[in-house]
UniProtKB/TrEMBL annotation:
This is Thiamine-phosphate synthase. It catalyses: 2-(2-carboxy-4-methylthiazol-5-yl)ethyl phosphate + 4-amino-2-methyl-5-(diphosphooxymethyl)pyrimidine + 2 H(+) = thiamine phosphate + CO2 + diphosphate; 4-methyl-5-(2-phosphooxyethyl)-thiazole + 4-amino-2-methyl-5-(diphosphooxymethyl)pyrimidine + H(+) = thiamine phosphate + diphosphate; 2-[(2R,5Z)-2-carboxy-4-methylthiazol-5(2H)-ylidene]ethyl phosphate + 4-amino-2-methyl-5-(diphosphooxymethyl)pyrimidine + 2 H(+) = thiamine phosphate + CO2 + diphosphate. 4-amino-2-methyl-5-(diphosphooxymethyl)pyrimidine binds at Q40, L41, R42, E43, K44, N72, S111, K140. It is an enzyme of class 2 (transferase). Pfam families: TMP-TENI (PF02581). Residues 10-190 form the Thiamine phosphate synthase/TenI domain. Pathway: Cofactor biosynthesis; thiamine diphosphate biosynthesis; thiamine phosphate from 4-amino-2-methyl-5-diphosphomethylpyrimidine and 4-methyl-5-(2-phosphoethyl)-thiazole: step 1/1. NCBIfam families: thiE (TIGR00693). It comes from Extibacter muris. InterPro entries: Aldolase_TIM (IPR013785), ThiamineP_synth_sf (IPR036206), ThiamineP_synth_TenI (IPR022998), TMP_synthase (IPR034291). Binds 1 Mg(2+) ion per subunit. Mg(2+) binds at D73, D92. The gene is thiE. GO terms for molecular function: magnesium ion binding; thiamine-phosphate diphosphorylase activity.
Length: 213
C-alpha cells in the first residue's frame, strides 16, 4: 500500500473512548464511507490478545476499501499481521529500527515536534511525519503544543509529506492554510461526532480546500 500526499489528506486515529454502544470496526467503516483516506489503530490499554484480534479485523476492513492501515507503536503486532505500516512517537522504537524490522515496503510514520526531530526521522527512513499538537487536545494527555510557525518550518525542512494532528476540527482547520501540510490527522472530530459519516465528509471537504488554497 502506497503512502502519498493524497492518501494522507484525512487520516483517522482510533479512540475507543468514543465507542458508546458502537464497535470500533463499525465506527471506522462509517469514517471510511465518509471519505477517510488513512487509518491508524491506536490502543494503549488493551492486552496483546485483544489488540491482535482488533488489528486483524480493522486490517480486513481497510483492505476491503483500499485504505492504508497502520498501527500505533506496536511494531510486533504490525509485523505479525502484515499491516501496511506503523506510526511511532519520539519515545517509541526509532524509525531506522522499525524499518529494519518491517522491511523496505512498509509505511513508517513518525511524530515530530521540532525541525531537528523531523530531519532525523526523514534521514532514518520515515515516509511521513505527524506534527502536533497544533491545537490543544484532550485525546492525548502528554501532547506537546507545536506553534504554526514551527509547523511551517518543518514542512519547509523536509521532503516527505507532513500532516498536522491535535485538536483539529471543522472550526479551526482553515487556519492551517498555507502551512505546507498535505493533510490532517483527526480523532474526536470524527469519532466523537453524532453522525461519523457526515462529519467525515465535511472534514474531508474542508481539508481539501485547506490544502489546495
Amino acid at each position: 500500500m502506497k503512502c502519498d500526499k493524497e492518501s494522507l489528506l484525512l487520516y483517522a486515529v482510533t479512540d475507543r473512548r468514543w465507542l458508546g454502544s458502537d464497535t470500533l470496526p463499525g465506527q471506522v467503516e462509517e469514517a471510511i464511507k465518509g471519505g477517510v483516506t488513512f487509518v491508524q489503530l491506536r490502543e494503549k490499554n488493551l492486552d496483546e490478545g485483544q489488540f491482535l484480534r482488533e488489528a486483524k479485523e480493522l486490517q480486513q476492513l481497510c483492505r476491503r476499501y483500499g485504505v492504508p492501515f497502520v498501527i500505533n507503536d506496536n511494531v510486533e503486532i504490525a509485523a505479525s499481521i502484515g499491516a501496511d505500516g506503523v506510526h511511532v512517537g519520539q519515545s517509541d522504537m526509532e524509525a531506522g529500527d522499525v524499518r529494519e524490522r518491517l522491511g523496505p515496503d512498509k509505511i513508517i510514520g513518525v511524530s515530530a515536534q521540532t525541525v531537528e526531530q523531523a530531519l532525523l526521522a526523514e534521514e532514518r527512513g520515515a515516509d511521513y511525519l505527524g506534527v502536533g499538537a497544533v491545537f490543544s487536545t484532550g485525546s492525548k494527555a502528554d501532547a506537546v503544543e507545536v506553534g504554526h510557525d514551527t509547523l511551517k518550518d518543518i514542512c519547509r525542512a523536509v521532503k516527505i509529506p507532513v500532516i498536522a494532528i491535535g485538536g483539529i476540527n471543522q472550526d479551526n482547520i482553515g487556519s492551517l492554510t498555507g502551512s505546507g501540510i498535505c493533510g490532517v490527522a483527526v480523532i474526536s472530530a470524527i469519532f466523537g461526532a453524532g453522525d461519523i459519516e457526515e462529519a467525515t465528509r465535511e472534514l474531508k471537504a474542508a481539508a481539501g480546500k485547506m490544502v489546495e488554497a
